[in-house]
Design goal:
The protein has 328 residues and is of the alpha/beta class. The protein has 14 helices and ten strands. The longest helix is centred in the last third of the chain and has 35 residues, at 253-287. The termini are far apart.
Length: 328
């Protein structure tokens, strides 16, 4: 008969067969990757999750966190690595998962969320479950929903104060059909580019600007090369924390429970940090040289992107779009 210690070791070795994981003296090691900086809310959430996981499993599970694109600067490729089990876990901008399920684009529609409470309710409610089920068909499991606050424009030379200023500007966007359609509707030339390449792209004039939230602008120091920050608030982003579904389902029940509880702790830490720190980060960026540019005609921006919604009725589903809009 196999004793408990041997059985534990066999279980750990079996679980480690999934790349992105390793074993050291019966310990399951999970490599968690993201492309943002160490002071970004993603990192805050993952660090909190890692601490909780270590405590709840008495060190049997360990998360090793790799920020700044250390395991790849292209979020789509990192997510594919989770599919292929060469990375254990990742957090990605929600626009990226639209490459794996078109329904995910419902969270990417411009100006669809009234505020962060609306965003959280959509992620935690039925829309989030629908997207998680769709992603499950691709061998991926969402274990938590992180988020980004309002995203704003930042540009190198030309200040954007009104919609007409967008005409012909090359703006870096995520690899999402909705992002492309949104910036085309605004009159810009949307240019997909790996997030890790954006700073140099701005510096060299490959693009005229980009868009991100205050945490991303600070963390990647975009204000150094694109100091004009226009307060458009065009997107809020739902960002899933994703693991390989097959790996997750093979976890023993006790470790799976600890993993889920730890993921929830990380999710709360991330969201609390985002809510409490956003205004502070804006002031910090301004002190570092960022110039806040107000928009004089934001209603025109909303009207310009209105046709984006029906353009995605077939791929997202009109009922799902209306479900998100009507969340109270």
């Amino acid at each position: 008969m196999i004793n408990r210690q041997v059985l534990t070791a066999i279980t750990a070795i079996a679980l480690s067969c999934f790349a992105g994981l390793g074993v050291a003296q019966d310990k399951i090691v999970i490599k968690a990757a993201h492309t943002t900086s160490e002071d970004y809310p993603y990192q805050i959430g993952l660090v909190s999750m890692a601490k909780a996981l270590n405590e709840k499993t008495s060190g049997k599970m360990e998360m090793q966190i790799f920020p700044n694109g250390a395991l790849g600067g292209d979020e789509r490729k990192v997510l594919e690595s989770v599919q292929l089990q060469t990375v254990g876990m990742t957090v990605v901008n929600g626009a990226v998962i639209s490459n794996f399920t078109k329904k995910a684009d419902v969270f990417n529609l411009p100006f669809i969320f009234r505020d962060t409470s609306h965003l959280f309710a959509a992620m935690d409610g039925e829309p989030g479950k629908i997207i998680a089920d769709e992603l499950g068909k691709k061998g991926l499991r969402i274990i938590a929903w992180y988020a980004n606050p309002d995203r704003h424009m930042f540009t190198t030379k030309k200040q954007v104060t009104k919609l007409e200023d967008m005409k012909g500007m090359k703006i870096r966007v995520t690899q999402s059909p909705v992002s492309l359609a949104t910036f085309k509707a605004l009159g810009a030339l949307p240019t997909p580019m790996a997030y890790g390449e954006l700073y140099s792209g701005l510096q060299m004039g490959v693009v005229d600007g980009g868009e991100n939230d205050w945490f991303g602008i600070r963390g990647m120091k975009f204000y150094e090369v694109a100091k004009n920050i226009t307060l458009t608030g065009h997107f809020m982003v739902a960002s899933p924390v994703v693991v390989n579904k097959g790996w997750y389902e093979k976890l023993p029940a006790d470790l799976k429970s600890a993993f889920d509880e730890s993921a929830a702790i990380g999710q709360k830490a991330m969201r609390d940090y985002m809510i409490n720190e956003t205004s502070k980060i804006q002031k910090e960026v301004e002190a570092l040289g960022g110039i806040v540019v107000p928009v004089s005609d934001i209603e025109k921006w909303r009207q310009a992107v209105a046709p984006v919604y029906p353009a995605f009725y077939d791929t997202i589903g009109k009922d799902l779009i209306e479900m998100v809009i009507n969340i109270k």
